[in-house]
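question for whoever is on the cluster today: can someone run the full assembly for these? two chains, 519 residues total. i dont have access anymore since they changed the login thing
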Amino acid sequence: MDITSDTHSQHISRQFNQELEELKTHLMAMGGLVEQQIQEAVSALLDGDSRLAERVRDNDKAVNDMQLKIDDECTRVLARRQPAASDLRLVLAVIRATSDLERIGDEASKIARNALALIESSQNAKGMVEVRHISEHVRKMLRDALTAFARFDIELALEVVREDDSVDSEYASAMRSLMTFMMEDPRSISSVLSVMWILRALERIGDHADNLAEYVVYLVKGLDIRHVDPEKLDEAAIKRQD
Amino acid sequence: MSRAMSETLLSRAAGETRSAIIEIPAAQGCLEIDDLSLRYGEQPALRGLSLRVPRHSVTAFIGPSGCGKSTLLRVLNRLHDLNDEVTQSGRVLLEGEDIHGPGVAVAQLRRRVGMVFQTPNPFPMSIYENVAFGLRLQAPLKKRRRDEIIEWALVSAALWDEVKDRLHDSAWTLSGGQQQRLVIARTLAVQPEVLLLDEPASALDPISSLKIEELIRNLKSRLSVILVTHNMQQAARVSDYTAFLEGGELVEYAATDDLFTNPRLTRTEDYITGRMS
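^ ran it for u. tokens below:
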């Protein structure tokens, strides 16, 4: 059976409805904060704004605290309600999602730290075009994954899963051109390495967004598509699954 | 637990059907229920149920009050035989043999298919005599052999250690949970092939309930257990397969792992998650 975003608000126990609703709301709030962290980390880098980079770095604690809070709420629901079926899948998906969001938060603060190093070295860093491009791409993936979670939207989730492959190839090609820069100009190695770390962090964010999208498929369809090769993923079959 | 992405599972047609019933291979089935319907007077209680209960496993029947789960359990033990109000059609096969067949004596069927009810009902006699009761109705046994069987039954029912020094005390001196395990021992003593349990733990405290659940899991190595329960967590904890009944119909029958994580039908989902339907 398919579930919708209303499914979790039809229990006889209104308190239970509210608890599940809060899990979703808090997850979305955490997602929003993490999205903002990425956006600010990348802006700090592109605009050379060290203050903003420091703020992102220091804000990571807020992301961690949200993970603890949501995990705590999930534990309480499991202990008190013994959820089954789609309720159980919601709680599990939220627990998994908070862990990915927290890792995305870590990556954002990694970007901020490398941005600070680059700003301090005041070198004219290469690869900013690629950073801008890939960061926009993964931010869209994350936004779509969160929207898919909020709306229980399988189509959108599968789109995110597909997108991850193109981020991976963009990342690989950016790495190749940065490698060439390093060979051509060894003095740039230190700054190019920082940019590579940043690109690596962005690529990882794409992977985490991909994970989030996979949890949406699990939540809505009860199918676990982690570790399934995207090329072998039969999307029509997933959508058909009752 | 999620289902694997196998071709067969994914090739299912879309749209909500009326029922989703797992097919247990004939070779694994101990009981087969085939198009069973039952009416109390004009009131239908079971409507064309068909399912196969696998051997050496625990199968739970769940569903709201009045869904027919206890009625179904009673059919399996022919407890409706003397009720003139009841009209029944369809077949129930125990190891391939029709339990309503002309050659099947009710007493013999009830030895092979034992039943335990919600409220413990030990007979007003000693612990030992309670367990010996069924044995005494059968062919005479040497006392030594009978003692062995009684010890075995009490050990199997996880009661032996608590009663071995007072076998000749009245069964009424036992606690509710102990009485229920005594009744199970009494049923086991005649070595049934199927054990029917109708809400066996609902009158017990949580610790006694857990002991009964542990006992149920241990028993399945030697017989097949069918459990009727209102307690969904209990069904989820102890059973291998779960059948969800509603309004006298079998709605969904599946491996318990699947039914409680990803039921196929909305009716099942609504019931097990406590939603208004």
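summary bc i know u wont read the tokens: The mean pLDDT of chain B is 90. DSSP finds eleven helices and eleven strands in chain B.
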